[in-house]
């Protein structure tokens, strides 16, 4: 009998040792759960602070909230897994002899559930607060953007109306300018009015000044050209012809200006020609001549293939300026002393044109090319 009791005591002692070791293991598990709860609580506070910080970055806010919610759910699953493990352990212990330990574990289980619920509520409330803050910020940003967009639309409409008004005014002014310029040109054609060249226009003309030199090889036999090529005079017998000489340089493009002193001569011709081999100017020039001609000291005519116009000049100038705008198809004549524009011949210059000069055949006075053109 004593041996049997001793054997039962030994079995109970072994069971006690086993239960004690299991109890210690459960205690470690509970300590681990407490540390896990503390870690979870810290992580919850950290997540809440992280959500508040994420508000500053609106673009990543939604992703942050989703990640946070997913993490909370994952932690809940982990907690539920631990609770299920404890539940299974409790069921196993219910079959044992430590009912008191079972009750203690049951209470701790309930405490853990309550703590889990509290943490869940806190997390939900913090997430809800973050969501509310984000929604509020988004609403404010949306309203501000809407106000800004409306203001931009108003300003755009205003600027569009102003642009349309300016465009209309510009078109009106452009039409009026064209009309005035047309009326001015017609008035000049009808009245032969001389117009003063302002500094801006005169500077452009002077900058195109070229040094024209007479070519003796192109001179009529009854003309004499000076050695430096700056003078030509009639030295033959009187006739009705217009003996001529060309400049050495021909022009195919651009603008070119030169001045000629005619003095008191009563006959002369100035202009340009496309006939490099002819040594006299026809009485009635045809194609290839654009000329200004003086006859008898008083009749000044602008002559070309399509023009034969007498100019009414109050006073005959002694220094004439000639401006060739090859690309623009214009040959203009100026009083080089007073800067008054006298007349312009218009046409299309085909290829190379040469300055042409004729001192006439009725007096011995020279035509002199001015090599010292005055600037503005």
Description of the structure:
The chain is rod-shaped. The strands form three sheets. An eight-stranded antiparallel sheet has the order 1-14-13-12-6-16-3-2, covered by helices on one side. Strands 5-15-7-9-10-11 form a six-stranded antiparallel sheet, with no helix packed on it. A two-stranded antiparallel sheet has the order 4-8. The protein contains four helices and 16 strands. It has 376 residues and is an alpha+beta fold. The model has no long low-confidence stretch (mean pLDDT 80). The chain has helices at 2-54, 58-94, 99-191, 199-207; strands at residues 195-196, 223-225, 231-234, 242-243, 245-246, 255-261, 268-273, 280-281, 289-295, 299-304, 308-311, 319-325, 330-335, 340-346, 354-358, 367-370. Strand 10 (299-304) and strand 11 form a beta hairpin.
